[in-house]
Write a structure and sequence with these properties.
3 helices; 0% strand
């Protein structure tokens, strides 16, 4: 009977580990899907606003009265700069290129600092 309980305990641990791994995998996949949805929303906004801007520069909305004074190179500023941002977003989402390693290290240092200061405060408060 005890060997049956031992097997049951082992199988429960395996079950727990499998479920825990599945939950972690699910969370990673869910986050990836959210990131991809964010990128496609970003792409849609880029296409819509750049198209509207180019129509504006072409004089579709004002008959060319205002836009005739805007230099040609000004038409390219938004699509090029926003396109660079869109490319960086794509690299982050689909190619897993992360630019924020500096920020993560900084965040970890700050968390550690605050935790140490909280610990010091709690020790000094408990002595009073």
């Amino acid at each position: 009977m005890s060997s049956k309980r031992g097997l049951q305990k082992i199988s429960n641990e395996k079950y727990f580990k499998m479920n825990h791994r599945d939950e972690e995998k699910y969370e990673r996949v869910k986050k990836q899907i959210q990131n991809e949805k964010g990128w496609y929303s970003h792409l849609f906004a880029y296409i819509f606003f750049c198209a509207a801007e180019q129509l504006f520069y072409a004089g579709v909305f004002d008959g060319g009265e205002f836009t005739s004074y805007i230099p040609f190179w000004a038409r390219l500023i938004t699509p090029v700069l926003w396109g660079i941002g869109l490319l960086m977003h794509w690299l982050y989402v689909f190619k897993k290129v992360h630019y924020n390693s500096f920020y993560k290290k900084w965040e970890e240092r700050k968390i550690q600092e605050y935790m140490e200061s909280e610990e010091e405060d709690s020790v000094s408060n408990s002595k009073k």
